[in-house]
Design brief:
531 residues; 24 strands; alpha/beta; Elongation Factor Tu (Ef-tu), domain 3; 4 domains; 16 helices
Length: 531
């Protein structure tokens, strides 16, 4: 197995959808960030101006961190004439690397900006060592592997491509298409996913309608919704009903759980993966802080004591975020039913983003609000670089602008409260400002109903089942006892033909077919196994 040098350390890479998110990610431990302006990348909703991007580069470099610029659009003819201006802008920004998808853009940059390090985007769908080696020969310094690459495939790529850096996604949203190359958005919204303007149709809410036999539409309302149950039944899965549920926000039938490889992080660190990537450029500063903090602490703990490392304390931190539930994605090669979120459509987490430190005025903290607070609430401040939080219970709130004192505080329109350093009774006022610099975030515990507590518990159990820590199965129910015909789509172990189809995950990843895989390897190209 390929191994990096003993002093090699994996890079923690965070998204930066705005200047404040960039600074927050770096403050909480990111080694590098990736960013882009809307006209340069697949970052159509990026909040960066060119001036802010330049400031972000200065901020990162002054702290010894790196910043990569995304130039990963797929060009149409109309885009080609803009490339000279794009390249001039990129050279002015002077990033530590440029992330590219389009081979034409890659070659153009190599010719017209040879001083720039070129990284291959996940959009380029690099899934094999052959593809990675090809990009390396063309001059790529790093390849971002597709989310569909399993860990076993990654290990082989690492072994056969030792001279190019590899980057792997470890956390964030999963895409229902192939590495984000989607046409669903084009069809439903006329917005090009591969031009940086994905409408995220797989995340939309879909209204459930019903009609009577005579064509009259039945409106499903809060008053009558409990009178009906709606299901999908696929032709070759009779009796396996997929329930369509709609809450007050809609129905979600294409909703994948979020990727979280924290439980497997030690595997990636042992292998010597060069960059560990977190997705979420449209998420909040709170998301940037929590994910950077958790993965930073986990990575550093592994390097300090690999044999004694455990994912559990850092995984608990990740679950404080509002999330759709977590999955290991394609880590093991097979994506089971636990990776989807058809039945539970809501996000849930145990904590809420309370706000962030805006600045210090003498010994007074000016704290910007992001969620409502009431008398008696506990703020849990998360000091950058420290595992233990600092807790503060407040019974009254002083408006930072007006000085008015109330027993409640609401966010909105830049509202902030003033908190005296002396209120932190267990902390030294002299050092508190250094411990909690501007952009430090704080959270409050969420008040969850019994239903939402069950949802959070279910998400925890689901990931434990994927990890093999709880009894359960990932496999979809199979049609036992039914004869396989040429018209029936293969599903589950009992329906897999076992002939070695290129895209059959059961054949290529299940132990049941280990002997069959060995037999297939000895056959000629194109020759399948016999039934």
């Amino acid at each position: 197995m390929f191994e990096r040098s003993p002093d090699h350390r994996a890079e923690l890479l965070l998204p930066a959808g705005s200047l404040s998110k960039l600074k927050t990610a770096i403050l909480y431990g990111a080694d590098a960030v990736y960013a882009g302006t809307p006209d340069l990348s697949l970052r159509n909703q990026s909040a960066f101006t060119l001036e802010e991007l330049l400031e972000g580069v200065r901020f990162a470099h002054e702290r010894g961190r790196r910043i990569y610029l995304t130039l990963n659009l797929f060009t149409h003819n109309r885009d080609v004439e803009k490339l000279p201006e794009f390249v001039a802008t990129v050279r002015r920004v002077a990033p530590d690397g440029v992330i590219v998808s389009d081979p034409g853009v890659f070659d153009y940059l190599a010719e017209h900006a040879p001083e720039l390090d070129l990284h291959v985007s996940t959009q380029a769908n690099a899934c094999s060592w052959l593809t990675v080696a090809s990009w390396a020969r063309r001059g790529a310094k790093l390849c971002v592997l597709a989310r569909e690459v399993s860990f076993a495939e990654l290990a082989e790529i690492r072994e056969k491509c030792p001279d190019v850096k590899l980057e792997a996604f470890v956390h964030g949203a999963m895409c229902m298409t192939y590495s984000g190359r989607c046409l669903l958005s084009n069809y439903l919204a006329e917005r090009g996913a591969n031009q940086g303007n994905c409408a995220q149709s797989c995340r939309w809410s879909y209204r459930v309608l019903a009609r009577t036999k005579d064509g009259a539409e039945v409106e499903i309302t809060p008053d009558n919704k409990d009178q009906f149950d709606f299901y999908l039944e696929e032709e070759f899965r009779p009796g396996e009903l997929m329930k369509i549920e709609e809450d007050d926000r809609g129905s979600y039938i294409l909703n994948a759980k979020d990727l979280c490889l924290m439980p497997k992080l030690d595997d990636y660190l042992k292998l010597g993966v060069d960059s560990l990537k977190i997705e979420g450029r449209n998420k909040s500063e709170y998301y940037a802080a929590i994910t950077a903090r958790a993965y930073r602490l986990a990575i550093d703990a592994w390097y300090a004591d690999p044999d004694g490392w455990s994912a559990e304390p850092y995984l608990r931190e990740i679950f404080t975020l509002q999330n759709r539930g977590y999955s290991l994605g394609f880590h093991d090669g097979r994506l089971g039913r636990l990776a989807h979120n058809y039945e539970r459509t809501d996000t849930v987490g145990g904590w809420l983003y309370a706000g962030a430190v805006e600045r210090w005025e003498g010994r007074d903290m000016i704290f910007g609000l992001r969620n409502a607070l009431k008398a008696g609430d506990v703020l849990e401040f998360l000091p950058p670089g420290q595992a233990e939080p600092i807790r503060l219970r407040l019974y009254e709130f002083e408006n930072a602008a007006t000085g008015e004192v109330t027993d409640k505080a609401a966010p909105g329109q830049g509202r902030a409260i003033r908190i005296a350093a002396a209120a932190f009774h267990a902390e030294d006022p002299e050092t508190l400002q250094a411990i909690l610099p501007p952009l430090s975030i704080a959270r409050t515990e969420a008040v969850l109903s019994a239903e939402r507590q069950d949802l959070l518990h279910g998400n925890l159990m689901s990931l434990d089942m994927e990890r093999g820590l709880r009894a359960g199965t990932e496999a979809r129910p199979t049609l036992k006892g039914r004869a396989h015909t040429g018209k029936t789509p293969a599903q589950g172990l009992d329906s897999c033909c076992g002939l070695g189809c290129n895209g059959c995950h059961m054949f290529w990843h299940d132990d049941k077919y280990a002997a069959a895989r060995d037999a297939l390897a000895a056959k000629k190209i194109g020759e399948k196994l016999e039934k």
